[in-house]
């Protein structure tokens, strides 16, 4: 018997701001991005995503500004580039109220706010949505964010992940261990709402956090929200291997993507998990129309609005590439200016010329997971991503709101459905974790690190930090 075809998971990639990743596009006719501050905007987003049978709306977040390029915050403000930026957790209840099945992924940083209040907020969302939430775990990368929380500079990378690891430890204790499933008795006659014997403190006393508990929220259907993470570093990979259930993966070639996936699975197995306990997602750009030439025309239109300045601000580029000769190499320019190849290293190579970097930005070519064309062509490409690259799903990059999602729903979804590559209906009442991992998987699997706290005795287990503390010169 042949194996069932792998179906595509789709999240609509959002951020509660005007300009998230495709800068300048908010000016395009009919784009609704400037409406992000209206409740009605989020209701429309949610209904549209549910109409398209998407897995979730996925909200990015940052807690500082992109102030490293040019004149401080001026360019970011002009561009609406992740400022103003609303709290992503706050827009979820509005969307949940007008949907039954749609999931929600929200980004929150482990670096600046202690875990107890976040555990409560997330558990509140899980309870209220019937288990439809996921959390994108980030450790934050902006120096400006550090300065918003009383620090002079960013905490070193490895230490951020060590903090994150302990942060997760606290959360698991609260979410998985503090309340038994049958703790809520709700027996009016006996006068017992919750059974005191089934609720316990966690008494966490670690290097970074001291949290007594008990958790303030009774368990939702998932307890721990689905754990998402994007990483490119060795520390991040180790963290993902222990904690993440959905990992954003990159790679410029099929081989590189496959290697990234294989490496992550291998590390997950080293942490006692099964290789298929992780789903792999990529950020994808899809521009669809009924004919190839119409799709390419759409891309051309989008290009006209694209802001190179916005891309440079977002990349936190050390220099304004537009000021230099196109033939010069970036590495040489930086050297002459006495600057290190820092942030620009994320997108460019030192030997690359200024001209080629600018063309790369302006071309709108978004790398390996980018396709422009007819539904047929796009579906061919997606099937390749699923079967050959080995990914499980995408975060759909929005060029135009709501145009990109509308095109995907009207043109691409039916083609994928016809090929057996996309759900034709939601499974009513399933949690977000079940949508990703199958029926009966509402909660973390037993082999996941967080499950060790399910048994009350687990709360007394010795800490098992991922990173040796001696590597840090100073605790935060
Ligand atoms: C698809 C995707 C979405 C991301 N979303 C956010 C975000 O919303 N907020 C944030 O602070 N970082 C975000 N990041 C950055 C990651 O959290 C992470 O810092 C980055 O991938 C580098 O990995 P490292 O931290 O292990 O070095 C995102 C990365 C990717 C690839």
From TrEMBL:
<comment type="similarity">
    <text>Belongs to the NtaA/SnaA/DszA monooxygenase family.</text>
</comment>
<dbReference type="InterPro" id="IPR051260">
    <property type="entry name" value="Diverse_substr_monoxygenases"/>
</dbReference>
<keyword id="KW-0288">FMN</keyword>
<protein>
    <submittedName>
        <fullName>LLM class flavin-dependent oxidoreductase</fullName>
    </submittedName>
</protein>
<dbReference type="InterPro" id="IPR036661">
    <property type="entry name" value="Luciferase-like_sf"/>
</dbReference>
<dbReference type="InterPro" id="IPR011251">
    <property type="entry name" value="Luciferase-like_dom"/>
</dbReference>
<keyword id="KW-0503">Monooxygenase</keyword>
<dbReference type="Pfam" id="PF00296">
    <property type="entry name" value="Bac_luciferase"/>
</dbReference>
<dbReference type="InterPro" id="IPR016215">
    <property type="entry name" value="NTA_MOA"/>
</dbReference>
<keyword id="KW-0560">Oxidoreductase</keyword>
<keyword id="KW-0285">Flavoprotein</keyword>
<feature type="domain" description="Luciferase-like">
    <location>
        <begin position="38"/>
        <end position="385"/>
    </location>
</feature>
């Amino acid at each position: 018997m042949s194996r069932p075809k792998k179906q595509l998971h789709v999240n609509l990639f959002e951020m509660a701001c005007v300009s998230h990743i495709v800068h300048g596009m908010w000016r395009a006719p009919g784009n609704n991005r400037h409406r992000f501050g209206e409740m009605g905007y989020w209701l429309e987003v949610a209904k549209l995503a549910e109409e398209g049978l998407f897995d979730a709306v996925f909200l990015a977040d940052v807690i500082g500004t992109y102030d490293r390029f040019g004149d401080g915050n001026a360019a970011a403000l002009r561009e609406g580039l992740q400022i103003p930026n609303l709290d992503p957790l706050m827009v979820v209840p509005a969307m949940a109220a007008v949907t039954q099945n749609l999931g929600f992924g929200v980004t929150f940083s482990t670096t600046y706010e202690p875990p107890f209040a976040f555990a409560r907020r997330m558990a509140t969302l899980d309870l209220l949505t019937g288990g439809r939430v996921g959390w994108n775990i980030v450790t934050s990368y902006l120096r400006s964010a550090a300065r918003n929380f009383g620090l002079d500079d960013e905490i070193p990378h490895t230490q951020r992940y060590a903090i994150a690891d302990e942060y997760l430890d606290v959360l698991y204790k609260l979410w998985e261990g503090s309340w038994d499933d049958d703790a809520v008795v709700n027996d009016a006659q006996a006068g017992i709402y919750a059974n005191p014997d089934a609720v316990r403190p966690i008494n966490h006393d670690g290097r970074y956090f001291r949290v007594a508990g008990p958790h303030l929220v009774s368990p939702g259907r998932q307890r721990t929200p689905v754990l998402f993470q994007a990483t490119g570093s060795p520390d991040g990979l180790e963290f993902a291997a222990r904690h993440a259930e959905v990992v954003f993966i990159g790679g410029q070639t099929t081989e590189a993507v496959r290697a990234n996936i294989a490496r992550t699975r291998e590390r997950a197995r080293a942490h006692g998990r099964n290789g298929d306990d992780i789903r792999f997602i990529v950020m994808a750009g899809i521009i669809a129309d009924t004919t190839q030439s119409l799709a390419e025309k759409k891309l051309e239109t989008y290009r006209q609005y694209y802001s190179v300045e916005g891309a440079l601000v977002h990349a936190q580029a050390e220099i304004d590439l537009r000021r230099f000769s196109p033939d010069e190499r970036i590495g040489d320019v930086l050297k002459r200016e006495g600057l290190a190849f820092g942030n620009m290293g994320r997108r460019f190579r030192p030997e690359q010329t200024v001209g080629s970097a600018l063309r790369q930005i302006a071309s709108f070519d978004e790398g390996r997971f980018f396709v422009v064309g007819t539904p047929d062509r796009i579906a061919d490409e997606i099937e390749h991503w699923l079967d050959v690259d080995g990914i499980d799903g995408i975060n759909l990059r929005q060029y135009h709101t709501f145009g990109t999602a509308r095109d995907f729903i009207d043109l691409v979804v039916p083609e994928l459905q016809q090929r057996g590559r996309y759900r034709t209906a939601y499974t009513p009442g399933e949690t977000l974790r079940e949508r990703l991992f199958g029926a009966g998987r509402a909660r973390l699997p037993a082999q996941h690190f967080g499950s060790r706290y399910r048994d009350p005795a687990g709360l007394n287990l010795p800490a098992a930090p991922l990173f040796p503390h001696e590597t840090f010169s100073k605790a935060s």
